[in-house]
Write a structure and sequence with these properties.
Elements lengths: L57 H4 L13 E5 H4 L6 E2 L1 H6 L9 E5 L9 E2 L3 E2 L1 H9 L3 E2 L1
Parallel strand pairs: 1-3, 2-4, 3-5, 4-6
């Protein structure tokens, strides 16, 4: 085998089609583009996604639905009974992150009353519902 004798495998390379080279080639005159219309024009073959030929597009015919809050992934809820599982007496955002009760990107945390708590806890810098606050204070804790 020599470098000057190397060739591509049979059918590996396809020759490009030369259009507009006369009627005998089979692709003369209109070059397979047909007559008139946007696809027959130079540079006009690409139409916008969703374009339906002038008809009102589907995405404009259907009503707008739904909403995704940007603040939703920054806020979290913690249930009252989950606070009883913590080892610390002072509960703040860092303690909840350390216990993996809230995600690392949470900026606001609200404590919701679900379940019971018997442990004396001090809540700092967190939002608390009225029912949860009453339950914490009834157990001897405080909310700051």
């Amino acid at each position: 085998m020599r470098l000057n004798t190397l060739t591509h495998a049979e059918g590996a390379r396809k020759e490009r089609t030369r259009v507009g080279r006369g009627i005998g080639s089979g692709l003369g005159k209109t070059c397979g583009r047909g007559h008139k219309g946007s696809y027959a024009r130079t540079g006009k073959g690409k139409i916008k996604p969703g374009f339906e030929g002038g008809q009102m597009p589907m995405q404009r015919r259907l009503p707008k639905i739904g909403f995704r809050s940007r603040k939703a992934h920054e806020s979290a809820e913690v249930l009252l009974y989950q606070l009883g599982l913590l080892d610390t007496e002072v509960v703040d955002l860092f303690a909840l992150r350390a216990a993996k009760l809230v995600s690392g990107d949470a900026k606001k945390v609200k404590i919701v009353k679900k379940g019971e708590i018997t442990k004396k806890l001090t809540i700092k810098g967190l939002l608390v519902t009225a029912g949860a606050k009453a339950a914490i204070e009834a157990a001897g804790g405080s909310v700051e």
